[in-house]
Design goal:
There is one protein chain. This protein is α/β, with parallel strands linked by helices. It contains seven helices and five strands.
């Protein structure tokens, strides 16, 4: 089977709703997860792989640039939304990528009506946006495992720190 180009996985809201409906009509279970994915790291990869294992298709919704700025501050995102979407879409476990401009993906969750809502384990079950809606229509909500020490903010803080560890010292020849 020929692999799909990453950009082909990035869908508008309307196209995404149609794709999800077709998949669900075929009996496929659709998993929804979301986040900023500003600096893709091992924690993201493992969470996305775990989310994909919960169903047949994985939809990843990314916060728009304006949404990331409101949530994380004026210096973020480091990477523009279109680039973040393409990088996330390039992962084999991801079927579809979209973005949303609100502070939460609630309207998108309600439009898509996923079978599974997956969110990072750092979120308490009661704090997961869309949980009540997904459970109301018979879906399930899953908290994903955390990878200790793998948080974008922590990685950025470490990179910005003047005390950051340098790589191995080179010997003079």
């Amino acid at each position: 089977m020929k692999p799909r180009r990453a950009r082909a996985k990035a869908l508008s809201r309307d196209a995404l709703v149609r794709a999800v409906r077709r998949a669900q009509q075929r009996g496929e279970e659709v998993v929804f997860t979301n986040g900023c994915f500003d600096l893709l790291h091992l924690g993201h990869v493992r969470s996305l792989e775990q989310a994909r294992s919960l169903g047949d298709r994985l939809l990843v919704a990314l916060n728009s640039d304006a949404s990331v700025r409101r949530l994380k501050g004026p210096e973020r995102p480091l990477v523009p939304a279109r680039q973040r979407m393409e990088v996330v879409a390039a992962l084999e476990c991801v079927d579809w990528v979209t973005s949303f401009g609100a502070d939460t993906p609630l309207a998108l969750i309600r439009a898509v009506r996923p079978d599974v809502l997956a969110k990072g384990g750092d979120w308490a079950l009661g704090e997961i946006v869309g949980r009540e809606d997904v459970e109301r229509w018979g879906g399930r909500v899953v908290r994903l495992r955390e990878v200790p020490g793998m948080r974008t903010t922590a990685l950025l803080d470490r990179a910005r720190s003047p005390k950051r560890r340098a790589g191995p010292k080179r010997r003079k020849a």
